[in-house]
Amino acid sequence: MYRIHAFLLGTILAWTSAVASASDAVHQHRLDNGLNILVVEDPRAGVVTSMLWYHVGSGQEYRPLTGISHAVEHMMFKGTEVRETGEFSRLIAREGGRHNAFTGRDFTGYFQTLAADRLELAFELEAERMHRLVFDDDEFQREMEVIREERRQRVDDPPQARAFERFNATAHMANPYRHPIIGWERDLDRLQIEELEAWYERWYAPANATLVVVGAVTADEVFALAEKHFGAVPDRDPEPQPEGREIAQPPGERRIDVTFADARLPLLYMAFNVPSLATAEQPEDAYALMMAAELLDGGRSARIPTELVRGQALASSAGARYTATARLDTLFTLSGHPAAEHSLDDLEAAFREQIERLHDEPPTEEEIERAVRRLLASEVYQRDSTSGQAHRLGQLEATGIGWQEVERFEARIRAIEPEDIQRVAQRYLQPERLTIGRLHTEEQS
Amino acid sequence: MTAAASPSRRLGASQPQALTRQVLTRIVAAAVALLVVGSVKAERLTPEIANWTGPGSAPVYFIAARQLPIVDIRLVFDAGSARDGDTPGAAQLVTRALDQGTEQTDADTIARRLEDAGARLSTSVHRDRAEIHLRSLSEPQALEEGVATLEEILAGPAFRDSDVDRIRGQMEQDLRAERQSASAMAQRALYQAMYGNHPYASPPSGTQEGLAALDPERARAFYERHYVAANAGAAIVGDLEQEDAEAIVERLLGALETGEPAPDLPAAPEEPAEREIRLQIPSSQTALVMGLPAVARGEEATEYPLRVVNQAFGGGGLVSRLHQAMREDRGLSYSTSSRLNVLPASGPWLIQSTVRADRAEEALEVLQDEVQRLVDEGLPDEEIEAAIRHLTGAFPLSLASNNALSAQLAVLVAHGLPTDHLDQYIPRMEAVDGPAIREALADRLRPERMVTVIAGPDVDEPDHEVEAE
User: Fold this and answer.
1) Active-site hit among A73, A126, A128, A379
2) Across the interface, which of A89, A216, A299 has its CB nearest the CB of B318?
3) Cβ of B39 and A116 within 8 Å?
4) Minimal-distance CA residue of chain B relative to A263
């Protein structure tokens, strides 16, 4: 049965390819002040998503200023020289829009989704706070209270998140990704409003930002609207992105064990220091690592779900992840909760075996074909969401990889041979690059 | 900071407070018309829904969306956790075990077949329904492979001992994880107090006792009773002809026994089982949740006013009263919100917040004061107008992707709503006015029926053991 089925798939694969490569065209334009603009015309639903990406995040931070990018993001919802606090949100809400913001390691992003004919409102407000934000001390003090609550909610309360924060800090030996995006508690406690203002002045320059617009608009009208509103923002020399790569030599194997009284589930984390698509000597390395992660955990037919979650039932949940889209060196991570009858040791041994197998045997053609099909189908499904498309383009720009990677994706993923996967596994998935983190529950230790 | 400059001219953002209801309604209508005109490039605001009945008289709703080569097929069953009976967790265990194999085919083969075709199969369980979602490329061979696989699954899931054991083990782990979360424990307690012996009290993730009692026989029995065509419906959105959609439904629901629809649920209780519950949880934040059964599907005259109330009170994200009181004015909380969950038997209006533990009592007072103010004073016209304007303007956003559209359609099917339900949304919302809101508030938001759960460290006199599960 399976063989007949595999035979059918030649045509499906060829077809998927045609669809994926017919993806919507990206239009690019740069304003005189340096603002980079990308537009994808997607007329389907009369809706538009506008996302403004500043190329700054926790990856540019250092102590005692960790969490400062995120804190500035919160302050961006306060007043400007011409508008009082809350008015931005009220105006967008009035027009039936949704808006919010997010902070990552390489970016701080602000988005609005609204009916396409109301895009101008988003531009007007967004351009205004790009250069006319007001930092008020009372509001700052209250907002820091909110941020401390956010930290408690996201990091301090869930035992897994608390453990991940420590594991992550151990795994990144030298680069700033070791800091939590929301910032270390002690740094949040001392952060000064003057520091936020300086951070804003330093990084919120038009030439350090990318505006991504996806929806029922035409590129020309977006460029004209952008010129009208963002064109008035004074240009400033963009801050050079700092060097923050991992140390040159493999750092050596590290191990961290934590026990939390409130933890009910043990957790295993294994992370290898690897290059990202931005830092890889050759892009093939990053693509081969992407494929390795896909083979391990790209779907329910991948190795970890098939062998560890279902087959041996060693883990109640487990997965692998490689973040290729990053400005700095990144991690290739396996993590999971052992099933109740199994120990962290059992799961660690199973993870190590999975890595050994990537070293020892090239994956079969069939496995690779399936992984490629899954990835290309995902490309098609992603086009269903305007914000999904905007996220992808914005991340590629903010990390310095460039949106053009979207156009190269299919060819590059198809070019990966079984031996490439074996080669990158042998080179990067090695003990000298490995951090093992273990969260123990009290009953168990 | 200086006062606001005039916003964009084309939005006509002048003096909304001065407007009468009638004028405002006209403006909203004009705005909606503008929206339609402005989006001529779009092929739909509220798209055309075709409908027919499939095997077992199952309702089927279909929207052709030809722009992307994607097909979303959602099968809904009245098989949510409200049908768990004396084994809480049954509905979820069954959906999770569903794709683990048939007599002929094991889980690995099913996973490979679907993924070779680029298809995604997922299941979900809510209190009122279970859903199976197949997302496929529309290319005929790929779609055929996905449909054939799902057809085989529906015709006879095996519920093997090893698979059921494993999934029960995963669910037990999930319960342990839930106990790490003050919010999750508070929600669980809230539903139990709001609904008492009513089936909506049953937690979708189950209880230890319920899971322990679940074995392959019980899973199979649940499946045979509830996964039948007469208890099902289908929603399809995507790049295919109606006749192809009809054929797909014939095959999928035709693979099931005809069976019987599940019986109607009893009405939600008038009085809560308990008014206030305090749970001792070793967390750094305290979870505050409040709620009461508020509105049943079909009660449109109450539902739409309450939606407006909810939007203004805590549903409106960064512009709601709760956001202002809890976050902007006092810095008490990062997230505080309210929502209305309309269910076939009366669904709840819920308020949820997490706050710093040492200010939990203050925060609780703020929440209670806001509820009381709402009950006493209702909503002023300008807040009503702003909420309606937002809800009607944002409506197209909730239909903007095939995924979102098919999810909406699945709810229509599950709740037996007519095909013009989406078309009715904006007119119904615009018809909401002050008197309707006062009536809905007086009738449904009785503070004495509201349950409050406080879960966190150092709560006074904890009266529930968290381990009591």
Assistant:
1) A73
2) A89
3) yes
4) B180
Interface predicted TM-score (ipTM) of this complex, two decimals: 0.92
> Does B375 contact A at CB distance below 8 Å?
no
Which domains does chain B possess? 50-254 (3.30.830.10), 276-468 (3.30.830.10)
- Pair A298, A351: CB distance under 8 Å: no
**Cα-based torsion angle of the residue sequence A195, A198, A199, A203 in order, rounded to the nearest 10 degrees:** 180
Strands (E), B296-429: 333-340, 347-356
CB pairs under 8 A between A and B: 282
- pLDDT for B461 equals 54
Residues 6+ apart with CB under 8 A from A314: A308, A338, A339, A342, A346, A347, A350
pLDDT in tens, B122-145: 999 999 999 999 999 999 999 999
Of A5, A86, A337, the CB nearest to B173: A337
Q: Are A383 and B107 an interchain contact pair (Cβ–Cβ within 8 Å)?
A: no
Pairing of strands A254-260, A434-441: parallel
Q: Is B34's CB within 8 Å of A117's CB?
A: yes
The region of weakest confidence among A7-11, A110-114, B188-192, B412-416 is A7-11
- Are A308 and A318 within 8 A, CB to CB? yes
Measure the CA–CA gap between B11 and B202, rounded to whole angstroms: 47
- Report CA torsion sign: A405, A406, A411, A413: positive
Query: Does B181 lie at the interface with A, CB-CB under 8 angstroms?
Result: yes
CB atoms within 10 A of CB B11: 17
A405 catalytically annotated:
no
| Residue B18 confidence class, pLDDT cut points 50, 70, 90 | very low
Helices and strands, counts by H and E, chain B? 16, 11
Q: What is the pTM of this model?
A: 0.91
Torsion-angle region of residue A423: left (phi > 0), alpha (psi -120 to 50) or beta? alpha
List B59's β-bridge partners, or say none: B53
Residue A370 to residue B166, Cβ atoms within 8 A = no
* Beta carbons of B137 and A143 less than 8 Å apart: no
Q: Which CATH number fits domain A254-441: 2.60.120.380, 3.30.1370.110, 3.30.830.10, 3.40.50.2300?
A: 3.30.830.10
Which residues of chain A make contact with B8, given a CB cutoff of 8 A? 120-121, 124
Contact (CB<8Å) B319/A89: yes
Nearest CA in chain B to A374: B118
What is the assigned CATH class of domain A24-230? alpha beta
The DSSP result for A100-134, as a single string, is: EEEE-SS-EEEEEEEEGGGHHHHHHHHHHHHH-B-
Q: What is the DSSP letter of B327?
A: I
Q: Is A386–B3 a contact, with Cβ atoms under 8 angstroms apart?
A: no
Span B289-314, pLDDT tens digits? 999 999 999 999 999 999 999 999 99
User: By 3-state DSSP, what share of chain B in percent is helix, strand and coil, each rounded to 5?
Assistant: 50, 20, 30
Q: What digits encode the pLDDT tens for the residues A388-443?
A: 999 999 999 999 999 999 999 999 999 999 999 999 999 999 999 999 999 999 97
B29/A contact by beta carbon, under 8 A: no
Q: Where in chain A are the domains?
A: 24-230, 254-441
User: Are A24-230 and A254-441 in the same CATH fold?
Assistant: yes
Contact with chain A for residue B359, Cβ under 8 A: no
Residues of B in contact with A79 (CB under 8 A): 1
Residues 413-432 of A with CB under 8 A from B: none
Residue B469 pLDDT: 33
Number of H helices and number of E strands within chain A?
16, 11
Rounded CA gap, A344 and A440, in Å?
8
Q: How many CB atoms lie within 10 A of CB B52?
A: 14
Q: Does A321 touch chain B (CB under 8 A)?
A: no
